[in-house]
User: Fold this.
Amino acid sequence: MQVLQNISLKNYNTFGIDVNAQQFVSVSSIDELKWVLAEYKSADKLFLGGGSNMLLTKPINGLVIHLNIKGKSVVFENENRVQVKGFAGENWHEFVLWCIEQGFGGIENLSLIPGNLGSAPIQNIGAYGVELKDVMVSCDVLDLRDFSVKTLTNEECQFGYRESIFKQQEKGNFIVLSVILELTKSNHNLHTSYGAIQEELEKMGVSNPSIKNISTAVINIRRSKLPDPKDLGNSGSFFKNPVIASEKYQALKVVFPDMPQYPVSENEVKVPAGWLIEKAGFKGKTLGNYGVHKKQALVLVNYGGASGSDILNLARLIQKTVVRIFGIAIETEVNIL
Ligand code: EPU
Assistant:
């Protein structure tokens, strides 16, 4: 382990933003992490996982700690179920594929989500009808206030839609070290009802899908809409889908009869931000070397060499325009740094 000076973070964030970190260290064990924290007590710190949910708008004048702690193993199993533990630095998608290879079901719908295991509980990653909270038993965290390792249960993480205790009350207090997921070995609980999955399985000629088939269907759907950060800098959904009062939705529907919605509760609905942004005229809009993705308006992209503040300005313009047209505030899902 070596603390490096003045290095570019371009290859450490999926947006591919080229900003400088004053100091940078990659830690590959909990002991290394504790050592760095003790040694660099007074430094400003930024903890970096897969860098897939952040927009870097300025240089980091402090120490970047890259969490590269790896490892995965089965910690419990019986005939039907298994508990798998994975460390924070494991790549999420590779972990999903490994679980599928072992025949473990439950996270196949979360195939191809960028990022690492350590970030998964922070925003309760979700896609195609499944969220991390549906399978997570617990996670181990390092408490930055006293350097103790604690285990938080699923309930204690207070998961919501792209939400958790790590983004609320405990913001900045914990580093996720590992997660334990409970998966199925038989009688898998398949989720194929989410719109496009069924259609994709039919296209694949599959009528009795395996977990592998579902993973392949999700990969095909994601590849058709979402850009691969290896080819085009992006951070997945830049905004969260807003939740609004059903009453407000009914009023808007009079003016915009084709506005989609998903019920959330008796008196609230979720509106796809992608639809709002597309209606506001931003889908596929290109401003020099950055813009809004052509196939999914929820995704902002860096065509190469864009700065974080360029992209942030575009995001602000989108937010303002959506408020002006629909009276709906859309929040960023991505962390702005
Ligand atoms: N839509 C448009 N135009 C667009 C994009 C979407 O009109 O450009 C409308 C369509 O009506 C479509 C609806 O939005 O039917 C929903 O679109 P989609 O199924 O693509 O899902 P989403 O709500 O845009 C969410 C997640 C994605 C996740 C998909 C699938 C959020 C913020 N995003 O997107 O998550 O993959 O559902 O479950 O909840 C991510 O978090 O990075 C991410 C990609």
Notes: The pocket of EPU is lined by residues 127-128, 225-226, 236-237, 240-241, 260, 272, 274-275, 278, 283, 296-298, 333 (CB under 6 Å). The mean pLDDT is 96. The first strand starts at residue 4 and ends at 8.
